[in-house]
Write a structure and sequence with these properties.
Elements (H helix, E strand, L loop, with lengths): L8 E6 L4 E5 L5 E4 L2 E4 H4 L7 E3 L5 E5 L3 H6 L10 H10 L7 E5 L5 H10 L4 E6 L2 H14 L5 E5 L11 E6 L8 H7 E11 L2 H13 L2 E7 L25 E7 L40 E4 L5 E4 L1
């Protein structure tokens, strides 16, 4: 059985579902809108224990998740949200031992996730031009216990990157297409590139640049997150959702682009409706015959029933 000790960061969830993080220090008192929480009352307790404030309001204390840590950091900039971070880590193939370059440290939300993923032997190299951003990111990484996994660099990335043969590189900057040559030079052969931008015209500029800079296997997507009220008797979506926060663009570093045949590129007027989307990438083609009752499209696009 593990118990909470002085110096531990804990998550407190009040009865009204308000939540916050705090580091346990003997003798300290946390003021909340539901009463005082004495740190001494938490030290030595088992995570998940139900306790009360001095006003008798109940709360539980837990160890925080990485999601809790990221959503509680001090921010002086827009952050990459957890709904994108999970997909970014998978698409960039980030794991223990990976060497990753990040451009646009900001407040350090993605930096924290990358550092957590590459432990114990990997390394994150994070660049930002603004000293105030790096100062806040340093504080947030320190609070998360991950600063040792990261090298923070105050640099204009137009000058290029110090690193070579990195496994992945992520661009969170306003004009990522201007830095694709520098990214190509930093990545290992076949390495993973990712970027996030807020508008479609930026996506178009980036795709054009990727085609010109020997990147292939390009993917563009957007991730929306809708939460539900966890009440069994009246389960329904919450009134607000985390909708558009940015477009994600991914690509792979190629030594050379494969030759394209004349007419091979398709636009929206000629592309088949059956073309695979991101979720179908690498899917095995269906080899079994259509079963009775299957809904299939006829040659003219009309819908038919096979049975």
């Amino acid at each position: 059985m593990t118990v909470l000790a002085e110096g531990d960061v804990v998550l407190v969830i009040l009865s009204d579902r308000k939540r916050f993080l705090m580091r346990l220090q003997a003798g300290d008192v946390q003021h909340t809108h539901r009463g005082l929480i004495h740190h001494d009352d938490l030290i030595g307790q088992v995570p998940g224990k139900a306790l009360t404030t001095h006003l008798g309001c109940s709360f539980v204390v837990l160890r925080p998740s990485l999601h809790d840590v990221i959503m509680s950091i001090k921010r002086i900039s827009q952050i990459v949200y957890p709904k994108e971070i999970g997909y970014i880590l998978l698409k960039l193939n980030v794991g223990p031992g990976s060497r990753v370059v990040e451009c646009g440290t900001g407040s350090g939300a993605l930096t924290i996730a990358l550092a957590h993923a590459v432990r114990p032997s990997g390394r994150v190299y994070s660049y930002d031009q603004r000293e105030d951003m790096l100062r806040v990111a340093t504080r947030n990484l320190t609070n998360a216990g991950l600063l040792d996994q990261v090298e923070l660099k105050e640099r204009d990335i137009a000058e290029g990157f110090d690193e070579r043969d990195v496994d992945a590189l992520f661009l969170d900057v306003r004009t990522p297409w201007l830095y694709l040559k520098q990214a190509w030079e930093a990545l290992v052969e076949g390495g993973f590139l990712g970027a996030i931008v807020p508008t479609t015209n930026q996506v178009s500029e980036l795709i054009t640049g990727l085609d010109e800079c020997r990147f292939g296997d390009i993917e563009v997507c957007e991730i929306l997150l809708r939460s539900y009220k966890p009440v069994a008797a009246r389960l329904r979506p919450v009134d607000r959702m985390v909708a558009h926060t940015g477009y994600l663009v991914f690509a792979r570093r190629l030594e050379e682009l494969p030759p394209r045949r004349s007419g091979e590129l398709q636009d929206e007027t000629t592309e088949s409706e059956d073309s695979p989307g991101p979720e179908d990438s690498g899917a095995v083609e269906r080899l079994t015959p259509h079963l009775p009752g299957d809904i299939i499209a006829g040659e003219g696009g009309e819908i038919e029933s096979n049975g």
